[in-house]
């Protein structure tokens, strides 16, 4: 049985203004994940992603690199309570 998990991922560094949100959405859709990605006022990016653990781990690994123009300084991951989402979207 594949259980669906939900992760909250915080990405810090030069991650705003470098297409991080759009690139994260594209990667999450490619991996078949649902969730959201948004910029936070402190300059970081928050990703809420849900799916199978192996695919979530792939997204986390991608977040550690980010898109070409990004500079990722740190990534923190927390498993959070699952709230059903039906797609992956950028929140503005």
Specify the biggest β-sheet: 5 strands, mixed
Spatial strand sequence of the major β-sheet: 4-1-3-2-5
Secondary-structure-based class equals alpha+beta
CATH-level-2 architecture: 2-Layer Sandwich
Task: Offer a few descriptive terms.
5-stranded mixed sheet, alpha+beta, 39% strand, 92 residues, 5 strands, 27% helix, single chain, Alpha-Beta Plaits
Characterise the protein shown here:
This protein is an alpha+beta fold and about 90 residues long. The radius of gyration is 12 Å and the shape is globular. It has two helices and five strands. Strand 2 and strand 3 form a beta hairpin. Helices cover about 25% and strands about 40% of the residues. The chain has one domain: Alpha-Beta Plaits (2-Layer Sandwich).
Q: How is the topology of this model organized?
A:
Blueprint lengths: L4 E10 L5 H12 L2 E6 L5 E7 L1 H13 L5 E9 L8 E4 L1
Parallel strand pairs: 2-5
Antiparallel strand pairs: 1-3, 1-4, 2-3
Summary of the model, kept short:
The chain contains two helices and five strands.
